[in-house]
Each structure stands twice: as C-alpha cells, then as structure tokens.
Amino acid sequence: MDLTKIARATHATLRAYQRGADLVERHADICSGELVFRGTRVPVTQVVEQFRAGVPVAEIAEDYPQLSAQALHYAELRARMGKTPGRTAKPLKIQRPAVAVLPVP
Hints:
Elements: H1 4-21, E1 24-25, E2 36-37, H2 44-52, H3 57-63, H4 69-81
Helix pairs in contact: 1-4, 2-4
C-alpha cells in the first residue's frame, strides 16, 4: 500500500498550520488576551466559528479584508481540527465576605 500522497498532503497541511501560527498573537491589552490575527483586532475564534458554521471563504474574506489568504487558510485548518476537549472557561468570580457596617455613634 502506497501512502506517499497521504503523507505529502499531511506534511503540507502541517507546514501550513505551523506557518499560520506566526500570523496570530495574544496580548493582555488586546481583546482581553484572546488570540487575534497579528496586527488586527480580529479574534481567531470568530473566524474559525464562521468556517465551522459553513460560511464560504469568499464571504469571510469580504467581511475581513485585512486578513491575508494565508490567515484565512490557517483559520480554516483550525476549524477542521475541532474544538478542544474539556469544559469551557468560565469567567473568574471573586467572592468576598460581606462586611458589616457599624453605625457611627
């Protein structure tokens, strides 16, 4: 059984994913630390979810003209990978004990 074509396609997809990882960044002061495309405020998850919803590439490219074809390909690859397993992250809730206020005499 010859697996050369499958191996080449898998290797090409992996290289495209690795190159695409250079197109994203995460900073605490940009979109609350969410992963965004470098030089933009476009969250990666927003574009990925559009691909998962079946929105055509041409329509996404029209909605986000600042994204390159390589960035769109990266988002499409992430969409095909599926969601990460586990619970979704919940916002942190800080619970403080109630402070009794005493009347001033």
